[in-house]
User: What shape does this take?
Amino acid sequence: MSATDSAPGMLAPSLDLDPFCDEVLTEPLALYRELRETAPLLWLPRYGSFALGRHHEVRRVLHDVRTFSSSAGVGLTNLRTQPGIRSPSLILEADPPAHARPRGVLNRVLCAEAVDGLRSGFRAHAERLVSELLERGTFDGMADCARAFALQVFPDAVGLAPELRENLIAYADMLFNANGPRNELFLRSAREAEPLTRWIMEHCQRSALRPGGLGDQLHQASDQGELEPAEASLLVRSLLSAGVDTTIAALGNTLACLAQHPAAWQKLHAAPELARHVFDEALRYDSPSTFTFRTTSARAEIAGVAIPENHKLLLSLGAANRDPRRWPDPDRFDIDRRPTGHLAFGSGIHACVGQVIARAESETLLEVLARRVERLELAGTPERWLNNSLRIWGTLPLSVAAA
Assistant: This one.
């Protein structure tokens, strides 16, 4: 590690580590520490990008949308100079003022009142699923619980037909891999997802969606002139491509934390109403979205270092959420902690618009599990599924005993 002027106009410490190698993706905590403790701003020569890992600086960049743009892409690829793998997201990859209109429509469709109306359906499915899991006793917390639940309730809410919903998993895996470099992880997932791209776009059309569902409501907004018909389909695509895997990852990470910390599970079992708080601490502790990127729209400065226009910045959400400057003893999973201000869902105007529904799904399942399950334990060694920007378990063997 040394000072370098390999990035134009700056002298920042250079970190010669690959955030996207298998070793780091499997266990990123050492990288998180280096990103935070070396300096407020680093240079990644391998990718020609700056990097930030401290909570204060990451949050500042997320909120300064004039200087740090999303429209050049929230991944490593600079969409100003290179094509992306799909048309840009109207929500994540748009800056004001273009961002405001589609975001306003999606905010209305996914408002707290609308999502509250879905909770009874979420709960009914959670009760059925937990009954099945208790009968089995031992199961895979990913395939049999987190994935089974999210693939049922969220596509139901959007209005997607039940057939071939597993296509959403492979498609989202490719999209999250595309946020990083074109490495073997991306190439593998792209090969698997290539036949699914047409299927996804066909199922974003109004004719493929149940009347009255969230997807149909977005198409209704085009009837009112709030969106173009093509924009409505793209917003449905945003829901389907980002609303399943992140929830599955967050649920799996939460279940793993609770299985590995029996005292925390007992506290939740005794007070299931703590589910929201427990979920937030798990999001902070093991963030499902590990990073996002921004691109400078003008010359900027962070911690006294000049950053030229049109340069990428990797914002490590996982590192920021473990910053000891923000939380004491941050590497400890502590459900008595108040994790307010974590960045797992981003922050500012580009914060995850679907977090209201992700919370409703996850908290409902956790509440039902906490009420009906006395003991939750690991039944084997979990294995990570590696993805360039999504921290998710591949398998999570669990055992449960009824209350």
Remarks:
- Residues 49 and 346 are 20 Å apart (CA to CA).
- The domain at 2-402 is CATH 1.10.630.10 (Cytochrome p450).
- Confidence is low (pLDDT under 50) at residues 1-9.
- The two ends are 53 Å apart (CA to CA).
